């Protein structure tokens, strides 16, 4: 089994290009959103699934700050449950983006 030391990890992270970090930011946002949606669906005793593709635009401003934009705040998620839980789910998943 190969163990990474602190030196190996810092050396690897220093070789990641800004383009890689930008792509990683977009994927991390989608992953965090899916995790939060799964958690809420579990707590509400219902189910949620992605029915449509999600356009996630990630870039770097001139002052080297990443930005993330979405075409749909629900990110293509469909919730199956009663209307009160659906409102609660949509409110929290669109208002608490990572």
In words, what does this structure look like?
By secondary structure, the chain is of the alpha+beta class. The protein is 49% helix and 18% strand. It contains three helices and four strands, in the order H-H-E-E-E-E-H. The protein has helices at residues 6-14, 18-43, 83-95, and strands at residues 47-50, 56-60, 66-70, 77-80. The protein is elongated and about 50 Å long. The mean pLDDT is 79.
The gist of it:
With 98 residues, the chain is α+β, with helices and mostly antiparallel strands. It has helices spanning 6-14, 18-43, 83-95, and strands at 47-50, 56-60, 66-70, 77-80.
Query: What is the number of helical segments per DSSP (H or I, 4+ residues)?
Result: 3
The largest beta-sheet arranges its strands as 1-4
Radius of gyration in whole Å, from Cα?
Answer: 17 Å
The tally of beta strands, per DSSP, is 4
What structural category characterises the helix and strand content? alpha+beta
Summarize the amount of helix as a percent range.
40-55%
DSSP strand content: 15-25%
Tell me, briefly, the overall form.
elongated
Tell me the major beta sheet. Answer: 2 strands, antiparallel
Indicate the mean pLDDT. Answer: 79
Stretches with pLDDT under 50, minimum 5 residues: none
> In angstroms, what separates the terminal alpha carbons?
34 Å
SSE ordering: HHEEEEH
């Amino acid at each position: 089994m190969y163990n990474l030391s602190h030196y190996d990890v810092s050396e690897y992270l220093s070789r990641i290009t800004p383009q890689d970090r930008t792509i990683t930011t977009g994927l991390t946002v989608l992953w965090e959103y899916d995790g939060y949606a799964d958690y809420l669906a579990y707590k509400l005793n219902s189910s949620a699934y992605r029915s449509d593709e999600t356009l996630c635009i990630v870039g770097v401003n001139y002052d080297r700050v990443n930005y993330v934009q979405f075409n749909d705040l629900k990110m293509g998620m469909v919730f199956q449950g009663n209307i009160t839980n659906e409102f609660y789910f949509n409110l929290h998943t669109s208002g608490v983006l990572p």
